[in-house]
Design brief:
Distance between the termini of chain B: 112 Å
CATH architecture of the largest domain in chain A: Beta Barrel
CATH superfamily of the largest domain in chain A: L,D-transpeptidase catalytic domain-like
Strand content of chain B: under 5%
Largest interface: A-B, 38 and 39 residues
Strand order of the largest sheet of chain A: 3-2-1-8-4-5-6-7
Shape of chain A: rod-shaped
Structural class of chain B: mainly alpha
Largest sheet of chain B: none
Number of helices of chain A: 11
Distance between the termini of chain A: 105 Å
Oligomer: heterodimer
Number of helices of chain B: 7
Number of strands of chain B: 0
Largest sheet of chain A: 8 strands, mixed
Strand content of chain A: 5-15%
Chain lengths: 364, 199
């Protein structure tokens, strides 16, 4: 009996001791823990959020089951299913890692291409706006695009592709903002109907100069030139400056635009604020018609008048007048002495379909 | 004698079963651990020590999983769960102590970058103010002034990032503004040289 009790006691002690000793955990458990951490460090939640969530759900389920199994009494533990679950997790993790590397490689390759493309676009737009005084309106947006592009480059260098992509989106929005400011102004110069209209005015003036054997002035805003015609032939050409918003057609007082149309010299001023000056008869009939129409449509400030006192004057071909046409003094002196009252003055945006602005537009 | 030993054994077994079966969820330990972790996250732990925070969160998750597994059992044993909770709490508290240092370093870098950008911008503006006018340069000056205005507007983003403690983003943007301001300064110098005025 004593022997029997001793044997039972020994068996009991053996069971308790073996229950207290560490169980052999499948190695897949630790591997999966490391893999999960590795994927997190590789930013899988950022680049493949949905796929990562699916993987995490699988991982978490396996871990829950492992904990449950692990908490059982040693003799009753069975890790077979746990091992299979964890192997599934490891396979899913490996696949996710492969997809992640592929995604990052794609971004790594695409981002420099996008950066280059946007840089080109910024430079082309900058070239376009340099042809017009109004370009300053878009420059703030372009410089912001420049800064965002620099940041995108730096993020790409650090392999932070998500941040680089976000910056590229910003670049795009700044370029769009710049375009919105200048395109309505420059599109006219690429518009065939508009250019034909200008051509018609210029040709009519030249024909009349030929017929009447007199002088005529043609101002070309896109080329920034004033050409003096004699009996229908170009005689002298001068470089000019135009209004602060000179690329536009003048609509009202204070808009700083240089008008377009057919005019004539109505007064010669030997001494003006800007050296010598030739006053033209802006506004003409068409200008008044345009003004009234714009006013009706609410395109003009309520208090604004049509404006006037548009001159060809000296003071330097500074390209930032209030709407007038400016020449260097020596050029103004020569012109002043050659022309007279009633000399026709026709102001156009361009006379060629392929003008400086339309060519730059095409490049853009 | 044998019966006495058997009785003692039986009594011990019953006592163990009763004690294990009556074990309660370590609610206080859970609360303490979660509070410590939340405190670290509130201090910006995810921004400045993301990997450490993840490890702590993983430990907390493992503890909660362990508790859930024990809840379903008749003979509950929360010893391991308590151990994990204590570890999470200790790690979180240690991290919280070091966090302000990391945060302050990041902030100082951002502020330095902001100052450098402001200086570069101010230098460019001062140079532009001295640029010669006339002879067709007014349009160029207006264009460069527009550039500097654009940079000044972008500088407000740096302050916004600093205010929301996005110090890395702030530093990045400030450095880009500084580079661009220097570029504009170089353009101004080039324009001045063209007009025959070098300084």
């Amino acid at each position: 009996m004593r022997l029997y009790v001793n044997r039972v006691l020994s068996l009991l002690i053996l069971i308790i001791v073996s229950g207290c000793s560490a169980s052999i955990v499948p190695p897949e458990v630790e591997e999966a823990e490391k893999q999960e951490h590795h994927l997190w460090r590789a930013e899988a939640p950022i680049y493949l959020p949905e796929e990562y969530d699916q993987y995490k759900a699988l991982f978490h389920e396996a871990r829950k089951n492992f904990i449950r199994e692990n908490s059982r009494f040693h003799l009753f533990r069975n890790y077979t299913n746990i091992t299979l679950q964890y192997r599934n997790v490891l396979n899913a993790g490996a696949q996710l890692y492969e997809e992640l590397e592929k995604k990052k490689q794609e971004l790594s390759a695409n981002i420099p291409i996008k950066i280059l493309s946007f840089r080109k676009k910024i430079n082309t737009l900058r070239g376009l706006i340099s042809l017009m005084n109004e370009g300053r309106l878009a420059r703030q947006d372009l410089v912001k695009a420049d800064v965002a592009l620099l940041e995108a480059e730096k993020y790409h260098e650090k392999s932070d592709y998500k941040a680089a992509e976000d910056k590229i989106l910003q670049v795009s929005s700044f370029i769009n903002a710049a375009e919105e400011k200048v395109m309505p102004i420059v599109n006219r110069y690429g518009n065939q109907d508009q250019v034909k209209k200008w051509q018609h005015w210029a040709n009519k003036t030249i024909d009349e100069s030929k017929t009447n054997k007199n002088l005529a002035i043609i101002v070309n805003k896109s080329r920034r030139t004033l050409t003096l015609y004699k009996s229908g032939n170009p005689w002298k050409t001068y470089q000019i400056g135009i209004g602060r918003n000179g690329t536009r057609d003048k609509l009202h007082s204070g808009d700083h635009a240089t008008p377009e149309g057919t005019y004539k010299i109505v007064k010669k001023l030997p001494k003006s604020r800007y050296y010598k000056a030739l006053l033209i008869n802006y506004p003409n009939k068409d200008d008044r018609k345009q003004f009234l129409s714009a006013k009706k449509k609410g395109l003009i400030p309520e208090h604004a008048g049509i404006g006037g006192l548009i001159e060809i004057h000296g003071g330097g071909r500074d390209s930032m007048t209030y709407g007038c046409i400016a020449l260097d003094n020596h050029a103004m002196k020569e012109l002043y002495n050659l022309v007279h009252i009633d000399t026709p003055v026709t102001i156009v945006g361009a006379v060629n379909f392929q003008n400086r602005i339309s060519s730059a537009l095409q490049e853009f | 004698m044998n019966q006495k030993i058997l009785s003692i054994l039986a009594f011990c077994l019953i006592a163990i079963v009763l004690m294990a079966g009556c074990a309660k969820e370590p609610a206080e330990d859970i609360h303490a651990a979660k509070t410590a972790v939340d405190a670290v996250i509130a201090e910006g732990g995810e921004k400045y020590a993301s990997e450490d925070v993840k490890k702590i969160n993983d430990t907390l998750t493992a503890a909660m999983d362990e508790i859930k597994a024990q809840d379903d059992k008749m003979m509950k044993n929360y010893a391991k769960a308590k151990e994990l909770l204590a570890q999470a709490k200790t790690d979180a508290e240690a991290l919280k102590v070091n966090l302000p240092v990391k945060k302050e370093e990041s902030k100082m870098n951002a502020l330095a970058a902001q100052e450098a950008a402001k200086t570069a911008l101010a230098d460019a503006k001062a140079m532009l103010a001295k640029a010669p006018k006339g002879k067709g340069s007014r349009a160029d000056i207006e264009a460069m002034r527009a550039d500097l205005n654009g940079l000044e507007e972008t500088l407000t983003e740096v302050q916004a990032a600093i205010d929301s403690e996005d110090y890395t983003v702030a530093s990045q943007t400030a450095n880009s503004i500084m580079d661009k301001s220097s570029e504009v300064s170089a353009q101004i110098t080039s324009a001045m040289e063209k007009v025959g005025q070098t300084k």
